Amino acid sequence: MKIVIINGSARKGNTLTAINAFIKGASEKNEIEIIEPDKLNIAPCKGCDVCQCSKGCVDKDDTNPTIDKIAAADMILFATPVYWWGMSAQLKLIIDKCYCRGLQLKNKKVGTIVVGGSPVDSIQYELIDKQFDCMAKYLSWDMLFKKSYYATARDELEKNKDSMNELEGIGKNL
Fold first, then answer.
1. Structural domain tally of the chain?
2. What's the gap between Cα 61 and its chain centre?
3. Range of the domain at 36
4. Where does the NADPH-dependent FMN reductase-like domain start and stop, copy by copy (predicted)?
């Protein structure tokens, strides 16, 4: 299976740690590519609707090659830290630009990893999950998993062996 991971964090902290644990489990049987929005030149969606949700974006930047990778994937993993009770701007930028090929993103397998500085029963995780639920319903996604983790210090998640084993197991069982 071809898996595209969209890393919504610009830092090398807990979100990347979670991604790497997932990759450790998934890499044996799957082809994996990581998209790092903070390293791309992508303008925000203007809502011009020229793309008609299928033609690609009119912006002459990294949008179309990035969305091509996502559209070609069998599975998409969205990974994000929590920023102000929501997903990061880096991840939201990519999601917004997916509109230009939205019809080609139907019926994908999807997973989410969210890492925040509040306990996982905090509303911030629920808000992010609900946004992904709406996208999943609209695009007929097969939501394989939604995982949330609490970690504040940059290396805190890595020290949580149960979480690391869980993420590796999710990847391995795909």
1. 1
2. 20
3. 1-171
4. 1-120
Which tokens go with 60? 């002459």
133 vs 135: CA distance, rounded Å: 5
- Band (172; pLDDT cuts 50, 70, 90): very high
Q: Is the pLDDT of residue 73 over 90?
A: yes
**8 A C-beta contact, residue 27 and residue 171:** yes
- Reference 162, options 147, 174, 145; nearest CA is 147
Domain of 158: which CATH number? 3.40.50.360
Distance, in Å, from the CA atom of 79 to the CA atom of 167, rounded to the nearest integer, reads: 12
CA distance 69 to 114: 22
Q: Tell me what the mean pLDDT of segment 158-170 comes to.
A: 97
**pTM score, whole prediction:** 0.96
